[in-house]
Amino acid sequence: MKKLVYIANKKDLTPGQIRRHPELHDVILVCQAPGVFRAVSPSCTHQNWPLDDAYIMEGRIVCPLHGSEFDLETGECLSPPAIDALETYSIVELNDELYVELNQDITVDSGAETVSFGRRRR
Ligand code: FES
């Protein structure tokens, strides 16, 4: 069974921004382009580096530590040293609100809100 968890209002995000939901430790939300949002796992698959400050460019998220690139739509790893893909999650938009679709087995617990802004390269 799936559940929807509110993650952000789309008006609050601009291209290149990355948001970590306060109660979802397994997901970060990425604004890839105007009106295009992706949800992926929050850590690089190489050495588990947090992707909160990753670069967003041309449909890819780039790990700031060693530069591995991942396709934001599929999670596929596009360049070493990472090999494994990121997890990806579906996003549902209701009015201007964005919800991430999760499997029931992902835990959602409380915590302080953390918002960060990814750097954008052209
Ligand atoms: S930790 Fe991301 S590429 Fe090494």
Can you give keywords for this protein?
binds FE2/S2 (inorganic) cluster; 122 residues; Rieske Iron-sulfur Protein; seven-stranded antiparallel β-sheet; single chain; mainly beta; four-stranded mixed β-sheet
Considering the protein shown, what is the CATH homologous superfamily? Rieske [2Fe-2S] iron-sulphur domain
User: What value does the average pLDDT take?
Assistant: 83
* Low-pLDDT ranges: 109-122
CA radius of gyration: 13 Å
Query: What is the string of SSEs from the N terminus onward?
Result: EEEEEEEEEEE
- Biggest sheet overview: 7 strands, antiparallel
Named once each, the bound ligands are:
FE2/S2 (inorganic) cluster
Helix content: under 10%
Number of helices: 0
The CATH architecture term is 3-layer Sandwich
How would you explain this protein's 3D organization?
This protein is mainly β and 122 residues long. The chain has one domain (2-107, 114-120): 3-layer Sandwich (Rieske Iron-sulfur Protein), CATH 2.102.10.10. It contains no helices and eleven strands. The strands form two sheets. A seven-stranded antiparallel sheet has the order 1-9-8-4-3-2-10, with no helix packed on it. A four-stranded mixed sheet has the order 7-6-5-11, with no helix packed on it. It is globular, with a radius of gyration of 13 Å. It starts with a strand and ends with a strand. Mean pLDDT is 83; it is low at 109-122. FE2/S2 (inorganic) cluster binds next to loops.
